[in-house]
Amino acid sequence: MNHYYPEKLDLNIVPTPCFVVDESALKRNLDVLSKIQTQTGCKILLAVKGFAMFSTFPLIRSTLKGICASSPHEAMLGYEEFGGEVHACAAAFSESDIQILLKICDHIVFNSFSQWNRFKNLVQQQDRKICCGIRVNPQHSEAKVDIYDPCSPGSRLGVPRSQFREDSLSGISGLLFHTLCEQNADALQRTIQAFEKKFDTIIPKMNWINFGGGHHITREGYDIDLLCELITSFKKRYGVDVYLEPGEAVALNAGVLVASVLDIVQNDMDIAILDTSAATHMPDVLEMPYRPEIAGAGLPGELSHTYRLGGPSCLAGDIIGDYSFSSPLSTGSKLVFLDMAHYSMVKTTTFNGIQLPSIAIYKPDQNEFSIIRKFGYLDYKNRLS
Ligand SMILES: Cc1ncc(COP(=O)(O)O)c(C=O)c1O
């Protein structure tokens, strides 16, 4: 994949570590999502779990209809900073979670009938209209990596058909399935087929169906025509509203993480220690795992100078990978990690007290770079007691 790189950005003015999100790249993604909404009449929500840089929410709100949250905190952020519809869905909610969600959510999706039956009365006592739904598990696996497959055997995510309680549907107006991870529309097509096969008697009783996230809509080569066709024909078949709730697709290729080399050491090979860390700034590198792309770098041995890149933490495995460069790295060299706007920013931690990356916005048309937020000692301390 050709990743976006902010070519005109002067790296000398970027303090490191720093996430730099490109507003024009976000707009490019939003244009694609907007066309899908216009063409199909579906509603697209931002999955805040994937991208929560709330200074950009007014821009995103001009296109997307609302947000979906995985917790009361995400719901509150969406309610305060985004506006529009607030949806929530999680593996389980506590009563105190529900008390918060009841005040701000338009949709609450329960992961089991026991949760729905436990909180049904509370929901129905509200003056506000809250649409309730059930997350179902179509038991159809598409995700390539096990930890991202909500349909793997024994999954806790979603009600399988055998556990579905047709007798408990009073008050339920919709269903949600989420099965995909960075996938094309053909995977959605197969999922819809599996979903319809299993839940054919339930879908006609619903007002809305949420197709979840994992749609890699803004990736080059994504089959947008097929997605539109799938949504349009589904809506026609059942007369329901269709929601999509992508996170990654909203901020795909819309930002980078800029880091500096702090030191270079040798142990069997050259090792560059950076002011960014796999463990604390890009945990998916270790979790998924994957190899992030770096602007101008190649595979080990491909260019003249090969380095292992690691973070400053104590974790022996805090290694981003081995990369080669056309000229040698030295203390102060800046490296630009590509496609870091989604998931990395929301997953940072302060393990080892490591400095959190600043968050900046870049507007290439005006060549304007502004730091929105810097973090310091208190951000570390305030998470502890
Ligand atoms: C229920 C649900 N909706 C939406 C998303 C967003 O997925 P993505 O960012 O891959 O589009 C997820 C991701 O885990 C999810 O679990």
Provide structural commentary.
The structure is a single chain. The protein is of the alpha/beta class and 385 residues long. It has two domains: 11-20 and 254-381, Lyase, Ornithine Decarboxylase, Chain A, domain 1, CATH 2.40.37; 41-251, Alpha-Beta Barrel (TIM Barrel). Helices cover 28% and strands 22% of the residues. It is built from twelve helices and 16 strands. It has helices at 23-40, 57-61, 72-81, 95-104, 113-124, 185-199, 224-238, 248-251, 278-281, 284-287, 344-347, 377-381, and strands spanning 18-22, 43-47, 66-69, 85-89, 107-110, 131-135, 172-176, 208-210, 241-244, 255-266, 270-274, 305-310, 319-325, 334-337, 358-363, 368-373. Strands 1, 10, 11, 12, 13, 14, 15 and 16 form an eight-stranded mixed β-sheet that branches. A hairpin with a 4-residue loop joins strand 15 and strand 16 (368-373). The longest helix is centred in the N-terminal third of the chain and has 18 residues, at 23-40. The model has no long low-confidence stretch (mean pLDDT 97). The structure holds pyridoxal-5'-phosphate. Pyridoxal-5'-phosphate is lined by residues 47, 49-50, 68, 89, 178, 181, 212-214, 245-249.
